[in-house]
Design the sequence.
């Protein structure tokens, strides 16, 4: 599909949006909108076989995520989102790299509830921020298994219960290996199956 290739070429080398200029951002948003018009899955929330799985962030306009690259002495590594449709769970994990032996991790666990064929309401439940070595972080998959087992970590590990820790996400494009979403704060997310 030409539109999909055009989007992937537009975001290539932009480090998830960190290196995107204003002109790049405009071109990327046009490429995203073009691909959204060709969405092969009109009710993505109901396509659990496509939605469920492990995703890696390719591009975003989310300031909250991109600002993780501004921590002193750290650079933003990979950002993952694992979706478990059966339990309506979402796990976001951002890896931070910089000082040797002090690699960081920022993670948020949430629950989602479908409200339409393309929108989910998201309620953030738990945040974990710490050093990968102290947490015992080896991979996103193992880390999520530990969270699901109720493990507490040697980190800043706290529940999120405020009404402010909620949002929504529209899934505007979904196929077997690419997903585009638009959030309540105006952010756009492009993810690939990991």
Sequence:
């Amino acid at each position: 599909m030409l539109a999909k290739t055009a989007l992937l070429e537009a975001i290539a080398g932009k480090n998830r949006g960190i290196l995107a200029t204003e002109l790049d951002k405009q071109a990327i948003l046009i490429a995203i909108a073009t691909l959204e018009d060709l969405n092969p899955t009109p009710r993505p929330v109901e396509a659990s076989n496509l939605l469920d799985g492990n995703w890696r962030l390719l591009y975003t306009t989310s300031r909250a995520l991109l600002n993780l690259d501004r921590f002193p002495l750290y650079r933003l590594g990979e950002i993952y989102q694992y979706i478990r449709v059966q339990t309506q769970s979402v796990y976001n994990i951002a890896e931070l790299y910089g000082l040797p032996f002090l690699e960081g991790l920022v993670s948020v666990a949430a629950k989602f509830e479908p409200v339409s064929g393309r929108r989910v309401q998201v309620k953030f439940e738990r945040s974990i921020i710490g050093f990968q070595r102290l947490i015992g972080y080896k991979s996103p998959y193992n880390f999520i298994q530990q969270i699901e087992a109720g493990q507490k970590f040697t980190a800043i590990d706290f529940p999120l219960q405020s009404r402010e820790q909620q949002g929504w996400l529209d899934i505007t494009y979904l196929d077997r290996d690419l997903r585009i979403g638009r959030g309540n704060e105006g952010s756009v997310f492009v993810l690939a199956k990991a």
Observations:
- The first strand starts at residue 53 and ends at 60.
- DSSP finds six helices and nine strands in the chain.
